[in-house]
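G., the chain you wanted modeled:
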Amino acid sequence: MNKTLDEFTRMHNQLLAEWENAIKTGDASPLENMAQHYSVAFFTTKKKNPYVFNRAEALEGLRKSVILSSELQKKFENRIIRMKSSTKAKVFYEQVIERRGQEINRIFTIESWEYDQGWLLTREVEDQL
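Predicted structure as tokens:
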């Protein structure tokens, strides 16, 4: 399992590095490794129930957000990776979003991943702190 954890960690490190490049270039395509049944739920402090998006909706939002985020910096802190099996992983971390060095948002994120001829993101839960 350690080999699988190491391989998954390398892939996830690369994905996080791609975020910085996507924000600089506006190209979100390296971040689009989502399963067809992918969904994401966003919990905010302003609404009791989450906003839930399917893969198509999430991709549209992702593409728009990287274009609009050119002056932002996104940090990924306190990451924990747990392998449920050799083909399933969970990742927990905080996203810290800054503008000109000032924190403007902090989001706790849980990602679910499955391996099927490559690692695919199957589900995310994001909760604004």
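Helices lie at 2-25, 55-68.

Shout if anything looks off.
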